[in-house]
């Protein structure tokens, strides 16, 4: 296990994290893997992340006091109350160091063990092979391809829809 992983903390985001979250989400590679526009203001970030319902969970990964990743789970309502939608991103300088694994593992645990969600879903840029591999490792499967669904740096790119259906609980016998 890398040294940084032993000092990593995954926790609930706080409003005092706002400036760090805004800086993280405005990094070029972080933004490239999301649908965020460049130069998101602090006020827009606050509204999007902290002006939401109690069914929204926002986590951060912290190393040595710095935010190195974030992940969210939005629990849906009504006839889709068994579904959670995920989003996540990792700091440009901390890719492939276990940050995404730590965040995704925590959200899957929250979903399965605390919220009883049956379905987790997400979308990912079709050319983001490391993220796709991470999701597959956690039981997500490809459900569809949205062709030319997002404009990124002047080019239309495809996104993939992926989902994970919670495995049947094991008997305590």
UniProtKB/TrEMBL annotation:
Keywords: Acyltransferase, Transferase. It is an enzyme of class 2 (transferase). PROSITE patterns: GNAT. InterPro entries: Acyl_CoA_acyltransferase (IPR016181), Bact_Acetyltransf (IPR050832), GNAT_dom (IPR000182). SUPFAM superfamilies: Acyl-CoA N-acyltransferases (Nat). The keyword Heme does not apply. This is GNAT family N-acetyltransferase.
